[in-house]
Amino acid sequence: MDTRIDRRNFLRTSLAAAGALAVTDPASAELVSSAQPGPQLTGATFPKDFLWGTATAAFQVEGAWKEDGKGESIWDRFTHTQGTIRGGATADVTCDHYHRFKEDIGLVQQLNLKSYRFSISWPRIQPTGTGPANAKGLDHYSRLVDTLLAAGIRPFCTMYHWDLPQALEDKGGWPNRDLAGYYADYAAILGKHLGDRITVWAPFNMPWTFAYLGYGAGAFPPGKADYTLFLRAAHTISLAQSQALRALKAVSSQASVGSAYGMAPAYPKTNSEADRAATARYHAMNNVFFLNAAMRGEYPKAFVGAIPYKEMGFQPGDETIMKAPLDWVGFHYYTRRIVSDATPGASAGGAQFGTETELDGAEAAGRDRYTRFHAEMPTEGPLTDAGLEVYPPGIHDLVMQISREYNFPTIEITESGCSYLDAPYAREGGRIPDLRRIDFFRSYLQQLARALAGGAKVRSYHAWTLLDNFEWADGYSQRYGLTYVDFRDQRRTLKDSALWYGRVAAANRLDL
Ligand code: IFM
């Protein structure tokens, strides 16, 4: 997700005008781009029980922001603050999925999908983040889960997709270690009331992103830009992740707990030792920081020097608390990064060919004194309307890298998708011929099939997302949905890509 689209578009246009899209071939000992011409894998078949799915997040689709006893979340507060969101948009109504979930699950069923990843809004369950459960909030998700099961769809629950109860932010937010305990209590409530029907749980969606953008860069709520706060938040989240896993398993014997991390395969900008080391730090910090904490009880080598335990608020015994091996590993794939060293005095490492990302704003964004890497989103390939490069081999490379590093775990692709702004085409009876999205999914799925053929144990793919929805700082200016939503009257129309994806799911093959 890009929160600085104007800047990116500006950069893209000006670079293209200057003919400056020179490419430095990434080459890495750690991760070498597997892009290769070779034959197209058009007839790829997927494993028999492969779960074709789609995903949403509570804040992005539900609306009903203060119904049925729901408390205020940090995103409610942020969106109600002028100047934070493109177009001044809020998610007070968004897709009204809170009231229309039956119709929406009908769409999932119509597309032959067997897994629906949704998130639960913590402030619907505990309006202030602590204390007794709000029965109306639980009832809502109970009905959602029952509707899914009746439709033969697996409910995949993300327990936290960024909408922290505001009352907990008022207590210091994620940098406050107490939140790990509050979060475990919340997990226990969910497990106790829904664990008889939900078996697949992911504690956090993209923990690096919300910790970093919220506390390190200030682009997300609570809008703080202090790298030490980010480190503290990250450590609390690690503790919370493992405590939640244990809390769920204590109340639900069927609970199977994994993750929904945001990941990007990282390729070094040059073959220099410095760029390769920076790329390894990027991977450790942005991709596997929380995974390693859970699987091995230790943080990976994300830092130039020693792990800054003191700044993180690390206490003796924390390595034991944060170790809670996941039953499976879930992550998203959208696009790649090109990484170079950012230690003071390091050379730019070749021609610029992308847009800056994690590093925007030195100390608060990547060129901090701890990780010192410089990450770019290349603009070499075609770009989506959100300005992200379409890079199909990345999903193969990332899946294989995680498979190798974590002993070939069961993998769920928890999100993958693209924003294109195609709208109903009157001359075609209102159809939405979003051919670029079909090409996107086809090419990414071909590469996923390659990873499966290479031995990776991938059991699902969740297209992001079911519905066009509220895209965080970008408001409604991006459309990632398989379904077009007319926000004036809430009318849903399946895009051509949805119909195509539904046929792929039914056939379990790609040659369509
Ligand atoms: O919309 C987001 C989602 O909430 C998290 N992953 C990336 C998506 C697209 O930006």
Present as ligands are: 5-hydroxymethyl-3,4-dihydroxypiperidine
Q: Let me know the number of strands.
A: 15
Q: Find the CATH topology.
A: TIM Barrel
- Our count of domains comes out at 1
Q: Could you name the ranges where pLDDT drops below 50 across 5 or more consecutive residues?
A: 1-29
Query: In order across it, which strands form the biggest sheet?
Result: 5-4-3-2-1-13-12-8-6
CATH architecture label name: Alpha-Beta Barrel
Largest sheet, in brief, is: 9 strands, parallel
Note the total helix count: 17
The CATH class is Alpha Beta
Give the strand content: 5-15%
The CATH superfamily is: Glycosidases
- Helix proportion range: 25-40%
Write down the Rg: 21 Å
Distance between the termini: 29 Å
What is the residue-mean pLDDT, rounded to a whole number? 91
User: Structural class, judged by helices and strands?
Assistant: alpha/beta
Q: Categorize the overall geometry.
A: globular
Characterise this structure.
The protein has helices spanning 5-17, 58-61, 74-79, 97-110, 122-125, 135-150, 166-169, 178-194, 207-216, 227-251, 273-287, 289-296, 309-312, 318-322, 393-405, 435-453, 496-507; strands spanning 51-55, 115-119, 154-158, 200-202, 256-257, 261-263, 266-268, 329-333, 337-341, 354-356, 373-378, 410-416, 457-464, 483-486, 491-494. It is α/β, with parallel strands linked by helices. The chain has a single domain (3-511), classed as Glycosidases (TIM Barrel, Alpha-Beta Barrel). The strands form three sheets. Strands 5-4-3-2-1-13-12-8-6 form a nine-stranded parallel beta sheet. A four-stranded mixed beta sheet has the order 7-9-11-10. The longest helix has 25 residues, at 227-251. It binds 5-hydroxymethyl-3,4-dihydroxypiperidine. The site of 5-hydroxymethyl-3,4-dihydroxypiperidine (IFM) has 9 residues, from loops. Residues 1, 57, 60, 206, 332, 415, 464, 471, 480 line the site of 5-hydroxymethyl-3,4-dihydroxypiperidine.
